[in-house]
Write a structure and sequence with these properties.
Elements (H helix, E strand, L loop, with lengths): L1 H22 L20 E6 L5 E4 L2 H9 L4 E5 L11 E6 L4 E7 L5 E3 L4 E8 L3 H14 L11
Antiparallel strand pairs: 1-2, 1-4, 3-7, 4-5, 5-6, 6-7
């Protein structure tokens, strides 16, 4: 009888120890979510730079994924009053044959406008790399025959 009691007591202690280990929270650094873009649905991406009539367009899946990746790894917070600098705004659209998948407007000051919500945002955590978006747009212009004199993007 005493052996059974000791065995049960040991099992109880073991159970408490295992439960304690499971309840400890793991500290995992979580990346900010960014702007949700359903890359699987997107069949094209377009980028417009407000002052120019030139637009970037691609149906290449790698380019769509790369462009969508620019809008990941940061968090946005809504700003009470917002406005886009119309001289530096990029309009980015992801679309399928049937619908718009995502729309993002961002200006040179880092202010975002998401037409889906009708609100303005700023980056609160992480980093948005505007220079990478600018370079993608500029590189596509050169690929279509524009030269440095015609390239009016700052």
């Amino acid at each position: 009888m005493r052996n059974i009691r000791n065995t049960l007591f040991l099992l109880f202690l073991l159970l408490l120890t295992l439960t304690g280990c499971q309840s400890q929270e793991k500290t995992v650094s979580k990346k900010p979510p960014g702007i949700e873009i359903d890359v699987e649905k997107a069949e094209s991406v377009s980028i417009y730079y407000r002052p120019l009539c030139y637009s970037f367009f691609s149906e290449d899946k790698d380019t769509i994924t790369e462009t969508a990746g620019l809008f990941q790894d940061f968090s946005l917070e809504e700003v009470s009053e917002g406005d886009l600098d119309q001289d530096t705004v990029y309009e980015i659209y992801f679309a399928s044959a049937k619908e718009q998948v995502a729309a993002i407007n961002v200006d040179g000051n880092g202010t975002f406008y998401l037409p889906e919500t009708g609100k303005y945002y700023r980056v609160s955590d992480g980093t948005f790399h505007l220079e990478t978006l600018e370079q993608l747009y500029k590189d596509s212009m050169k690929a279509d025959g524009f030269n440095n004199i015609q390239n009016l993007v700052p």
